[in-house]
Amino acid sequence: MKRSHVFQSLAAHNSPTRVTLRQYGTLFTTYLGPQWFRVVCMTLLLIGSIVLELLGPQIIRIFIDAVQHNGNGQVLTIIALLYLGAAIGSRLVSACASYFSENVGWNAINQLRADLTRHCLNLDRSFHTAHTPGELLERVDSNVEQLSTFFSQFVIRILGSGILMLGILVLMARENIWFGVTMGMYLLLSNVVLTSLQKVAMVYYKRHLQAQAELSGFWGELLSSLEDIASSGAARYMLRHYSHLQRRENSAELKRTAFWVGFEGTGMSLEALSMLVVLILSASFFVQGRFSIATVVMLLIYTLQLLDHAYDIAEQLSTFQQATANLERINEIYHTQSRVQDGPGMHFPAGALAVCFEDVSFAYENGQTVLHHISFQLVAGETVGLIGRTGSGKTTLTRLLMRFYDPTSGSVLLAGQDLRLARLDDLRTRIGLVTQEVQLFRGTLRDNLTFFDESLSDQRILQAIEQLGIDEWYAGLPRGLDTELSSNGGGLSAGEAQLLACIRVFLQDPQLIILDEATSRLDGATEKALGEATERLLAGRTVLVIAHRLSTVERMDRILVLADGRVLEYDRRKTLANDPTSHYSQLLQRTNSEGMLT
Ligand code: ATP
Ligand code: MG
């Protein structure tokens, strides 16, 4: 089954989060299937270690019997060496099995992490608005990590321990049927007790996971807005909120640990009780002359092994329940399907792309309509300046063009075709977008400009910098393209980050360019210099420029004025400027000397 289908099948289940048995099967075949050879090696090694473990007590019995029957020194030495060989062999084989199982487990969860990350990247913006980065990190990283033991060992250890216990019970019953049956009944009963305890513990386990995710979410938000918090005096509130979340996490962890300790304590008490039962039973059989002392010793060792493995199964079942809790949280993410789905693909003509909005209305998740019946056409190669007051819907309109969202009604057309037909990757390589907030990555200036695309040569980058007329700024950088930048804007001013975003767009060579207040943070002189260079570079492309400064749009072919999500005016800039009754010309008259809209 293709990996991308796995979680669709998980998500297809009625309940958004619960994982069914069949889905576990799908998970195993998807993530363990490609590693079948390693899984087979691991299984064989585990069977080997089981056989060697069963052999040990038998050898001890033979040894004691030989001692009792005055066996000669040579025979005793051979038996002792055999025992040593079996013990060392068993340890070696299980060490090899552990190596394979760790390997298999980590490969599986790394693949799962990669799939989950890909899925998150493809989800639309409404999902990312609803989940904090910290919470996503917790799910993609920690929750997945908890699945490692489950993937690598669960089935094999359950099966291994089960087979071994059955083997021991058969060997015990061979000595005495009642002995075997009593031990069998006892094990069944103790398992029922342990599993019911686990069920209660699981409730506390899930609560702890949730508390951890909330704390991580808080950390993510805190770290990304440290400057704002310090400057707005919100530090005290954040500290209070932090201690509240931390207390909740601690108390959840305390309860979870308390139940775990209770679980372990019960396991140990059951172990002590069973040793008592075995001692009484075997002592009475010994007194009756039915068991030799060698058999008693062998049975005691078998009992210890039996209890070890019964406890192992209980532990594995708890791993299973923890894995289920983690899988449910992962499944919640996979259940979220992006509302913006890839189209079948459409043919984009070469050169500039025509844009058309046909009666487009749009509301975000909160249901409030922010764009109302927007209709306008932009011929290929034309430039349009989009102006309007804060909150009038300018950025929202560009988000529809990038297909971060789909319109609630109406359609957006690019080159005469509905955007919903396009493949998202294809669409986004053809549109260059510079937003109000420029995101930088930890890496060199070169990496930040090329997005780690090594096919873009330094020469091309330097050419773009020169064409944009900002070579003076570039010359001032300490290490040129090798200048290290950090993700929180380190090393660049807000205006410089916008320059960097403009270079990115020109390197991308798109057919439609959207500049959302791309030059709002530049000083007048830099903006003017950039404006002239931009004009040359924008030639032959369709361009949509959003600006608060009228000077920024004074070279545009057309002007679109938005007000409260409605088109107030849309026409050629010259026509609007010459019409004294138009909003645009009135705005021109009202602007201050800086060209700022007042
Ligand atoms: P500005 O000039 O300040 O950038 P804008 O014209 O770009 O403003 P938009 O960002 O498009 O305005 O916002 C239009 C309206 O949509 C606003 O009322 C805003 O509150 C709302 N809005 C924006 N983003 C979201 C969102 N993710 N979820 C819900 N509402 C949103
Ligand atoms: Mg905006």
Overall strand count: 12
The computed structural class is: alpha/beta
What would you call the shape? elongated
Q: How far is it from the N-terminal to the C-terminal residue, by CA?
A: 60 Å
- What proportion of the residues is helical, as a percent range? 55-70%
Give the tally of structural domains: 2
How many H/I helices?
Answer: 20
CATH homologous superfamily heading of the largest domain: ABC transporter type 1, transmembrane domain
How large is the share of residues in beta strands?
A: 5-15%
CATH architecture of the largest domain: Up-down Bundle
- Average pLDDT number: 83
Our Rg estimate from Cα atoms comes to: 35 Å
Give me the side-by-side strand order of the main sheet.
Answer: 6-9-10-3-11-12
- Largest sheet, strands/sense/barrel: 6 strands, mixed
CATH fold group of the largest domain? ABC transporter transmembrane region fold
Are any ligands bound, and if so which? adenosine-5'-triphosphate, magnesium ion
Furnish the topology, listing elements before pairings.
Blueprint: H1 3-11, H2 21-32, H3 36-68, H4 73-122, H5 125-130, H6 133-145, H7 148-175, H8 177-224, H9 226-232, H10 235-287, H11 293-335, E1 355-363, E2 369-378, E3 383-388, H12 394-401, E4 409-414, E5 417-418, H13 424-430, E6 431-434, E7 443-444, H14 445-450, H15 458-467, H16 471-475, E8 484-485, H17 494-508, E9 512-516, H18 524-538, E10 542-546, E11 558-563, E12 566-572, H19 573-578, H20 583-590
Parallel strand pairs: 3-10, 3-11, 6-9, 9-10
Antiparallel strand pairs: 1-2, 1-4, 4-5, 7-8, 11-12
Bound molecules: adenosine-5'-triphosphate and magnesium ion.
